[in-house]
Amino acid sequence: MPESMLLAAALGALGGALAVGLVLFLRRLVLASKELGTDAEQATYQTLHLASRAAKHLRGGIDGPDAQRAGKHLRALLGADSLAIADRAGTIAIDGDDAVRQLAERLVGEVLAGGRAQVQRRIPVGAWETDAVAAPIVGRTGPVGAIVAFASPVRAGLVRATGEVADWVAAQVELGELDASRAALAEAEVRALRAQISPHFIYNSLNAIASFINTDPQKARELVLEFADFTRYSFRRHGDFTTVAEELRSIDSYLRLERARFGERLKVTLQIAPEVLSTVVPFLSIQPLVENAVRHGLESKEGGGRITIEAADSGAYAELSVEDDGVGIDPEVLAGVLAGAPAGGEHVGLRNVDARLRQVYGEEYGLVVETNLGAGTLVRMRVPKAGPRRDGRITP
After folding, report:
1. CB atoms within 10 A of CB 136
2. How many CB atoms lie within 10 A of CB 79?
3. Per-residue model confidence as pLDDT tens digits over 220-244
């Protein structure tokens, strides 16, 4: 069987699996084999290896510099003499002989306009001739680009394989867009938390500081420094992650300012295992839980109350909890808040932290909340000590 037809058969059978991200699993499975004896096994391994290398460049889209790097692996995957990959605007990256650029531009334009694959034979390119197959990269809204493979000659296997690769590239681009959307959502959640902090907390803190200016100027100066430290941390513009130690340092500043308001009505207990201080956690993931305890648990309770913050070492995980003995939350209201129901600004911090933990680590890592009216609230979170990967997902 010709090599191009063998590649086409492998791509046809595995294209769906690759599109949903199973390429890495299959690649590891093949690598685990002690022998790749048959032609089919070797072709499958080579296909998966090249596809996995191309995938990491395609997640950034086909309109950037990574398109050139992806084209190198896609050309080897198809066994083409040269390969062109273009975005919706017709910007082309070529791997191989740049003499085909003008021809590629024409074919890309025709494919993007018609939305259908084309095969052309014996096309003059300077002093020689080539065949070409061009296939659209079709997204949800129509063609988002095109692939053109050049070979002499173009056989039926290469025609089919180019179409399969174009579909797989479309899936990778879409997955990259989903990753970007998730990152944008996470950033929006952080901005919402900052918006929650700013009007309520800043107003109360400034009032507390003002109340000490005449009676205790030294105390007022100390509170101004705490306020500066807290706001500098909360409104920083870089980094999606921080450490437990940094988050606790910000919480200490926050509680010093709140104790200036509450006085003896606010009591705090800390139980922190030193082993978890360096654990990486999403930025503003613990502080909103403490603010929720103060603002919604103790502020309306006559006589104030106590907040207990714990960080325990649990093998591969850090177990973090914030507990208050305040007024509690109606469980039905809490369930609605965590499900995304409008809450009029109530417990927004809980919802945002819960959503970001699930987004970063997976659904099983959401907040666990125990509460009832008049019974206080205990909020627990479990974070892998290994931390998230660079792409924001849990480290295996």
Report:
1. 25
2. 18
3. 889 888 888 887 777 665 557 889 9
Best CA proximity match to 11, nearest among 95, 86, 81, 77? 77
pLDDT band at 12 (very low <50, low <70, confident <90, very high): very low
User: What letters, b where the CB count within 10 A reaches 16 and e where it falls short, cover 55-72?
Assistant: bebbbbbbbeebbebbbb
Alpha carbon of residue 351 to chain centroid:
18
CA angle 302, 304, 307 (to 5 degrees): 145
The span from the CA of 208 to the CA of 261, in Å, is 6
Which residue type does 121 have? R
Report how far residue 292's alpha carbon sits from residue 326's, in angstroms, rounded to the nearest whole number: 11
Query: Strand, coil or helix: what is 213?
Result: coil
Q: What is the mean pLDDT of residues 314-329?
A: 92
Q: Domain 213-384 belongs to what topology?
A: Heat Shock Protein 90 (3.30.565)
Bridge partners (DSSP) of residue 364 are none
Domain limits, the chain: 3-179, 213-384
120 class by beta-carbon count within 10 Å (0-12 exposed, 13-18 middle, 19+ buried): middle
Task: Report the pLDDT value the prediction gives residue 104, as an integer from 0 to 100.
Answer: 92
Q: Which helix (H) or strand (E) holds 273?
A: none
CATH topology for 3-179? Beta-Lactamase (3.30.450)
| Beta-strand pair 142-151/92-95 | unpaired
Q: In a 3-state reduction of DSSP, which class is residue 218?
A: helix
Dihedral, CA atoms, 229, 233, 237, 240, nearest 10 degrees?
170
Q: What angle do CA 350, 354, 359 make, to 5 degrees?
A: 150
